[in-house]
Automatic annotation (TrEMBL):
It comes from Gracilinema caldarium (strain ATCC 51460 / DSM 7334 / H1) (Treponema caldarium). GO terms for molecular function: 1-deoxy-D-xylulose-5-phosphate reductoisomerase activity; manganese ion binding; NADPH binding. InterPro entries: DXP_reductoisomerase, DXP_reductoisomerase_C, DXP_reductoisomerase_N, DXPR_C, DXPR_C_sf, NAD(P)-bd_dom_sf. NADPH binds at T11, G12, S13, I14, R38, N118, E120, G199. Keywords: Isoprene biosynthesis, Magnesium, Manganese, Metal-binding, NADP, Oxidoreductase. SUPFAM superfamilies: 1-deoxy-D-xylulose-5-phosphate reductoisomerase, C-terminal domain, Glyceraldehyde-3-phosphate dehydrogenase-like, C-terminal domain, NAD(P)-binding Rossmann-fold domains. Belongs to the DXR family. Catalyzes the NADPH-dependent rearrangement and reduction of 1-deoxy-D-xylulose-5-phosphate (DXP) to 2-C-methyl-D-erythritol 4-phosphate (MEP). The gene is dxr. Residues 140-223 form the 1-deoxy-D-xylulose 5-phosphate reductoisomerase C-terminal domain. Transmembrane segments: none annotated. This is 1-deoxy-D-xylulose 5-phosphate reductoisomerase.
């Protein structure tokens, strides 16, 4: 029996990789919904390949809506409606940033499994997302290569045997830079990732190690471990995607070429293990190296630990402040090295909350963005 799939962020890197996987298994999946934010041309072109899929565009500008009858749903609210009405069994959430939170919750409320590449869902609202999944008898399956790797390893060995999780990081393009050189990097420098082909925001996050910081928070919540049980190791080749250490001391690693289609494939077919060609790695002639992350020059990583240890609304503030700082860097308002300074200042505020429900989560997100913008004004004077 075919499973109905919705692909959110269909024109982005996760969306494209997902559609590659689906195309390799035409007898297993039906695409029922495709969404994009602004790229209406690419989205509409996908309807010729998937004529039965409804299309949703979250940017509802009047200029886009004029005379366009291919799009069935418009705006952020339209996407939530589309998810509820899609009949999807699996929703792949490849939306970048906090904008992916409400679509994840809508998918879970509809009873669909969520193949999750949007780490902000767990960073901002992990307990709420898991409670929603439990209530509606569905699952959250990680698609990030690191969390997919940990998920597979824990599935193989059992959570009761786990001592620690080791997330690997490529280190980004600046891992060997001096402090002085780091202060001079440009936007183009930050967008030149050495091993992965990703969207702009996540590429900059990788360069600053904010992406790894978000993944630390996500790992704590996904796998129900303490922050001190999650370590980060720089592995520039990006062949080992994560490791776990068992209580008796052994390390187990998941290894493959850096190809997002493999973790997407695993999420779509879980718990079945299917043959596929994506990401296969031949170790002959390969050299694997490992380094400690340079937390003194890349403060976004230690700030993430501070946020997840503080708990409550602090991870929300960390994420929101980083999104605002990255946008300011992209727009030439601050330097690359100011991103961490902005986030650190925002985290100095009080972000405790008695109950993290949708309203309070969004309220903290809004307040922390305002705080970040005020800090950005100071750095951009």
């Amino acid at each position: 029996m075919k499973r109905n799939i919705a692909v959110l962020g269909a024109t982005g890197s996760i969306g494209k990789s997902t559609l590659d996987v689906i195309a390799s298994y035409p007898d297993d999946f039906d695409v029922v919904l495709l969404s994009a934010h602004r790229d209406i041309q690419k989205l509409c072109s996908l309807s010729t390949i998937y004529p039965n899929a409804k299309l949703a565009l979250t940017d509802d500008s009047v200029s886009l809506k004029t005379n366009n009858k291919n799009i069935s749903y418009w705006g952020p609210e339209g996407l939530l409606e589309a998810i509820r009405e899609s009949g999807a069994h699996i929703v792949v959430n490849g939306i970048a940033g906090a904008a992916g939170l409400l679509p994840s919750l809508a998918a879970l409320e509809s009873g669909a499994d969520v193949a999750l590449a949007n780490k902000e869902t767990i960073v901002m609202a992990g307990p709420l997302a898991f409670a929603t999944a439990k209530e509606h008898h569905c699952r959250i399956l990680p698609v990030d290569s690191e969390h997919s790797a940990v998920f597979q390893l824990i599935e193989a060995h059992g959570s009761d045997t786990l001592e620690e999780i080791i997330l690997t990081a490529s280190g980004g393009p600046f891992r060997q830079y001096s402090k002085e050189k780091l202060e001079q990097v440009t936007l183009n420098d930050a967008l030149a990732h050495p091993t992965w082909n990703m969207g702009g925001k996540i590429t900059i996050d990788s360069a600053s190690l904010a992406n790894k910081g978000l993944e630390v928070i996500e790992a704590v919540r996904l796998f129900h471990v303490k922050p001190e049980q999650v370590k980060v190791l720089v592995h520039p080749q990006s062949y080992i995607h994560s490791l776990i250490r068992l209580k008796e001391g052994s390390l187990y690693a998941q290894m493959s070429r850096p190809d997002m289609r493999l973790p997407i494939h695993n999420a779509l077919f879980w718990p079945e293990v299917r043959f596929c060609q994506f990401g296969r790695l031949d170790l002959v002639g390969q050299n694997l190296t490992f380094e400690q992350p340079r937390e003194d020059l890349f403060p976004m990583l230690p700030l993430a630990y501070r946020a997840v240890i503080a708990g409550s609304g602090y991870p929300i503030a960390y994420n929101a402040a980083n999104e605002e700082a990255v946008a300011a860097f992209i727009n030439g308002m601050i330097r690359f090295t100011d991103i961490g300074h902005v986030v650190e200042q925002v985290l100095q505020n009080q972000w405790n909350c008695d109950e993290l429900v949708v309203q309070s989560i969004l309220e903290i997100d809004t307040r922390s963005r305002i705080a970040a913008r005020n800090e950005i004004k100071e750095y951009s004077r």
